[in-house]
Design brief:
This protein is an alpha/beta fold. The chain has helices at 36-45, 48-54, 89-109, 129-146, 161-174, and strands at residues 3-5, 8-12, 22-27, 64-68, 76-81, 114-117, 153-158. Helix 3 (89-109) packs parallel to helix 4 (129-146) and helix 4 crosses helix 5 (161-174). The structure holds ligand AR6.
Length: 175
């Protein structure tokens, strides 16, 4: 598993299997579940997750909310809502960056030591990988530089090989 800096790690696999403090869910604004990684997380966390999510009254694009991990090996799930690339082209980059920033802020608030991100918005929401990866990496690097005392370990958890390869290429070049 390649490490690209002390705090950045790239993995290929299923995020629901990771036993880290926080995994991030690429949710929709209802927070009531869906397809992709959201469906996998709800399936693996069990029905208590939907009950907890209902009490959160949704989540706006770019924002983040937290629940316990329930049946997952992860302690917490941070639910964030990426932008639909086609609807929001102008603001999409800012909203995607906000997803990463707000998730990191919330993880730090909960004293998390590790956080694993899927490639938010790059599946059903159609955000091109080539644009989403630099936003993810640069936003996270900036946050880590601004919060040196937090010692947060960040994992990019890529489900498919294409996503993994694209991250690897970018990280090898720029980190
Ligand atoms: N572990 C890690 N990554 C995964 C997993 C997994 N188990 N399953 C899929 N991915 P997507 P979005 C990757 O579509 O684009 C849902 O219906 C996937 O290969 O899950 O933000 C929500 O409810 C891709 O690289 O999320 C929303 O309606 C990445 O996760 C909508 O989809 C994101 O793909 C959100 O769309």
């Amino acid at each position: 598993m390649p490490f690209f800096s002390q705090q950045l790690e790239l993995r290929q696999g299923d995020i629901t299997k990771l036993a880290c403090d926080v995994i991030v869910n690429a949710a929709n604004s209802s927070l009531m579940g869906g397809g992709g990684v959201d469906g996998a997380i709800h399936q693996a966390a069990g029905p208590q997750l939907a009950v907890a999510c209902r009490q959160l009254h949704g989540c706006r694009t770019g924002e983040a909310k937290i629940t316990p991990g329930f049946d997952l090996p992860a302690k917490y799930i941070i639910h964030t809502v990426g932008p639909r690339y086609r609807d929001n082209k102008k603001t999409a980059a800012q909203l995607l960056a906000a997803c990463y920033r707000n998730s990191l802020d919330l993880a730090a608030q909960y004293q998390a030591r590790q956080i694993a991100f899927p490639a938010i918005a790059t599946g059903i929401y159609g955000y091109p990988l080539a644009e989403a990866i630099p936003i993810a990496v640069l936003t996270i690097q900036k946050w880590l530089n601004q919060h040196k005392n937090k010692q947060l370990q960040v994992i990019f958890c890529c489900y498919d090989h294409l996503t993994y390869q694209n991250y690897q290429t970018y990280l090898e070049k720029f980190v």
